[in-house]
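Spend some time on the protein that follows and explain the fold to me:
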Amino acid sequence: MKLKSGKKSARKVENKGLNNEEKKSDFVGMIGLKTARKLHARRNSSPGMWFGLGMIGIIGWSVVIPTLLGAALGIWLDNHYADQRSWTLALLIAGLTLGCFNAWYWVDKEQQTMSNEQEQEKKDEGE
C-alpha cells in the first residue's frame, strides 16, 4: 500500500466527503487566496541582495568622500600655509565626522521609509 504525501493528496482526502458545490467553493477559495498572496508579494516585494549591497555602497561612499576631501584640502593647506598645526589631521577628522553624520542620515532615512511602509501595510490589512 502506497502512502500519498503532499498537499494535493491531502486536499483529495479532505474533499472526499464534499459535494460538487462545496468542492467548487473550496476551489474558488483556494484560487482567491493564491491570487491575494501573489498580489501582496508583488506590491510588497522585499529588497533583495543588490539593494543591501547598494545601501552599503552609499553609506561607505558617504563616509569616504568627505574624509578624502578633508585630507586633500588639509594637505594642500599644509603645503601652501606652513604652520605648527597639522591641517591634514584636523580636516581629516572633520571630514570623517561629516561623513559619519552623512551616513547616519542615509540609514535613518531608509529606516523611516521601511517603518512607513510597514505602517501602511498594517493599515491596508486592517481595512
Summary: The longest helix spans residues 87-126.
